[in-house]
Amino acid sequence: MRKDPSESSDQGAADQSASPGYGKVSSPYDLPTERFPSATPTSGSAGQRLPHTDDELDYGDARGGGLPTEQIPAYRQSGASDMSDQPTQVIGAGSGASLGATAGDPSTDRIGEGDVKIGRGTLDLGLLALRLAVGGTALVHGLQKLTGMWNGPGLDGFEEVLVNSGFQQAKLLAILGAIGEVAGGALLILGLVTPLAAASVLAVMINAWAFRQIAEPGLEYFAPAGTEYETLLGVCAGVIILTGPGRISLDGRRGWATRPFIGSFAALILGVAAGVCVWIFLNGANPLI
Hints:
single chain, about 290 residues, mainly alpha, two-stranded antiparallel sheet, elongated
């Protein structure tokens, strides 16, 4: 008698299920050893999600999630007033607020990793030209008084001029004035101890201005009888004190060369006081009438 094939298969399946030697075999791959962060936020925290694009891989997604692998430092100014009154020599890689808080500190003058150094442009070249003009003019006039070069009066002639102008201690004053112009002019050209050199030239120019002023009645400015030459040289000497000599100088690495402050202002006051005191105590005439 012929058997039904379906009955045979059903019987085989029943026998196989009943046999203890067959069944689902376990695998070590059924239990993962590492779980990735869940994309669903959990209670009490924002949760994490895996990055899906290149931008999210680099910076994270717009909601702050993602696992950034690289972050490029960027300067972001937090307010318009953060950097308005601060020097613009160094821009750091941090925020604008942190830069504004430390820009005035001399300790931050050192360039760090990630900082951007802002150049001074033509500022140092302009200061060099100013120093050469003022220092060179003072030097040659001082040599005229000290040695008689270039048809100058020499010390004797300079002393006679001072006596005729009403100065006391004319001989000593002639020597100090001539040396002050020569030394001050030479040091200005070199850019060495610049605040004191410019203060010396300023003191001489104050007395030269007063000497020129009493030669003519009333206030005179325009050349040849006026004081425009002495005024210009004196003001330029004061400007050099306040701005510093710049980096193209022997003082280039000193603080007063690029960031003059209290010391340079004191040198300016010293130069003005020296010139005024010499005129008042050794001459005494009123140059304003």
